[in-house]
Amino acid sequence: MKRLFVLIIFFYAQGQLFAQDRVKISLEDVLVRVQESNTSIKVSEQEAKMAKYDYRFSNSIFLPQISVSHTGMATTNPLMAFGSKLNQEILTQADFNPDLLNDPDQIENYATKVSVEQPLINLDGFYQRKAAKTTMEAKELQAMRTRDYLDFEARKAYGQLQLAHQAVAVFEKAYEAAKANLNMAQNSYDQGMLQKADLLEVKVRVTEVSDQLKTAKSNVKNASDYLAFLMNEQGNVVYEPSEELIPDNPGGPVEVSLENRADVKAMDLVSEAYKANMRADKMTFLPRLNAFASYEMYDDQIFRADANGYIIGASLSWDVFKGSQRFAKVGKSKTSYEKAKQEYEQYVAKSTMELQRTKRMVEDAKSRLETSKLAMEQSEESLRIRTNRFKEGLEKTTDLLMAEATYAEKQLAYYQTIFEYNQAQSLLTFLTKE
């Protein structure tokens, strides 16, 4: 007895541990949570920020580079000792004594230096900056498109949740009807009005519907898990839609130009970035012009500056030939640009095909709606008639079971058609959103 009590407590604890909270949720709430918390959206926004900082990094072709240094040293090196005294402006006639020049005493030198380097003309840098800016804009558009896609995916997941719950409701009714038919069949069998084979068929039907109901409830949990994943929610929760699964009634068809869609524009900008990189590589054959300046302070004591001087100048540099590196790099960047153009054209063609296919999907699903609704109503009426005739002993058991199964099948087919129609509408909205 004690052992039985322990087992009961154990299974109760397990049930409490794995119990799932049931939470009602609306489509609007789902869309808001996905936009606020979805991980894919956050990742795409971080990628856009990274591209933004890459663009800021390219400011170096306009802005100066400034550095400050303070150096201290002690030396007996003849050249360094003479130069240090010269920089400190303490050189005297006695320092020209050959003995002191060749074997000087130790001298200490402290130098403070402020250096400025200013790019003037770096044509390759200009195009690299243009490529970075174009890439940044492309990443921003891709982040926008990611939000649009997750909005579509959230609507789809919510529709799957509605469909799963609707299937549970259908099978629960079918299960109750099957049990009621089993009671009638059992009474008829007890009165000798029904054969045992017919009674067994009814029992098999009850078992089949019970299994289908369990599968439908598992689908509800699966749909809830995916919805929680999209919303980045933690916990073991079963969501219940607060809205019924009914056909959406959006506005009329929207005619748009695919070139204005965020993802298509992003692809176009990517090809433009490759083009700018190609031009940047070509500009490396040209010389560069940079200005530089420095202000230097010297003393034989730390953090003092009794002597000072400055340097101002400009540097024109030209890498005339660097093996075949630049030729290969230009060839590779040109090939990358051509590849990006072809990928853009392919993407536009594929997007056009998907848009046309989705429009046909919407029309096909719309035409199936009325057909499936009519089939469900007719099967419901057929089941009602056959149930009444079965109660009076005028209908075969197999015919009743067939009518019952057909009604459940037509109900599911109708709700599945609604789901497909709504998803086609959502996909059409997604594909035509600028």
Strand element count: 6
Look at the structure and give the mean pLDDT: 86
In N-to-C order, the SSE pattern is: HEHHEHHEHHEHEEHH
Low-confidence residue ranges: 1-18
What structural class should be given to the helix and strand makeup? alpha+beta
* Range of helix content: 55-70%
Give the strand order, joined by hyphens, for the main sheet: 2-3-5-6
Number of helices: 10
| Principal-axis shape | elongated
Biggest sheet details: 4 strands, antiparallel
Radius of gyration: 40 Å
Q: Hey, roughly how much beta strand do the residues contain?
A: 5-15%
Through-space gap between termini:
70 Å
Write the layout of secondary structure elements.
Elements (H helix, E strand, L loop, with lengths): L1 H16 L3 E5 L1 H11 L1 H19 L7 E11 L2 H11 L9 H5 L4 E15 L1 H68 L5 H35 L6 E5 L20 H22 L4 E12 L7 E11 L7 H67 L5 H35 L3
Parallel strand pairs: 1-4
Antiparallel strand pairs: 2-3, 3-5, 5-6
Helix pairs in contact: 2-6, 3-6, 6-7, 6-8, 6-10, 8-9, 9-10
Brief summary:
This protein has 434 residues and is an alpha+beta fold. It has helices spanning 2-17, 27-37, 39-57, 78-88, 98-102, 123-190, 196-230, 262-283, 325-391, 397-431; strands spanning 21-25, 65-75, 107-121, 237-241, 288-299, 307-317. Helices cover 67% and strands 14% of the residues.
Tell me about this structure.
- It is built from ten helices and six strands, in the order αβααβααβααβαββαα.
- The model is unreliable at 1-18 (pLDDT under 50).
- It is α+β, with helices and mostly antiparallel strands.
